[in-house]
Design a protein that fits this description.
Layout (H helix, E strand, L loop, with lengths): L2 E6 L4 H11 L4 E8 L10 E5 L16 E4 L5 H4 L2 H21 L4 E5 L11 H14 L5 E5 L4 E2 L7 H16 L10 E2 H14 L3 E5 L3
Parallel strand pairs: 1-2, 1-4, 2-3, 4-5, 5-6, 6-9, 7-8
Helix pairs in contact: 1-6, 3-4
């Protein structure tokens, strides 16, 4: 395959799992990684572009790929304010999507969250929903939106809710069945694998992925 991919958020939980899976796959001949800090990964297919995401135009050429995987995201606590949270989870994501489309990318795959809705009463879900709406309005061949519940996996930093979910994951999977399955905690590596699978299928249109 002579396809190319771009990954944003490669140091996060989903993004790091995604990058590992991509580098162990032969589907993409080149993988562009846009990150604030260097990713310690030895792979000839990977090219790294260091950027603070405030000046994505300066690395616009990194978006000249087939598929863009966006795993950017933070928490209200880590961001420190609503404005800072919105900057990461909305501004950077939508800006990346617009640049990617201008550079000829065909598919945009983005991690959102369960409960995302542009008119949600909850700020977190509202920002995620607004992001989804604006990304979906961009004329890619395909847009894939992934809405995981609590993510399981080894993080660099501690997150209280995720720590609880790690301990309760097995019982919750027995309880949360059928329509409730989408609320069950999910392994980050499974979300990453689902993103790659969706990209390879290359089904046109806008797709929402829940109950991952």
């Amino acid at each position: 395959m002579n396809k190319k991919a771009c990954v944003l958020g490669a140091t996060g939980l989903v993004g790091s799992n995604l990058l590992l899976l991509l580098t162990n796959d032969t589907y993409y001949s080149a993988i562009h990684v846009i990150t604030r800090r260097k990713v310690h990964l030895q792979a000839r297919s990977v090219s790294q572009y260091i950027d603070d995401f405030n000046n994505l135009e300066t690395v616009a050429h990194a978006f000249a790929v087939d598929d863009v995987y966006c795993c950017l995201g933070t928490t209200m606590k880590k961001a420190g304010s609503k404005e800072a949270f919105k900057q990461v989870d909305y501004d950077y994501v939508v800006k990346a999507a617009r640049i990617a489309h201008a550079q000829g990318a065909k598919q945009f795959l983005v991690v959102s969250a369960i409960g995302a809705h542009p008119h949600s009463l909850f700020f977190y879900n509202r920002i995620k929903g607004q992001m989804e709406k604006d990304v979906a309005s961009i004329q890619f061949d395909a847009v894939h939106i992934f809405r995981p519940s609590l993510l399981l996996g080894q993080r660099d930093e501690k997150r209280f809710l995720e720590d609880i979910a790690q301990r309760c994951a097995k019982p919750l999977h027995y309880i949360l069945k059928g329509p409730l399955k989408k609320y069950a905690p999910v392994e980050a590596k499974h979300v990453a694998a689902s993103m790659i699978q969706a990209a390879k299928a290359h089904i046109p249109g806008i797709h929402i992925h829940e109950a991952l």
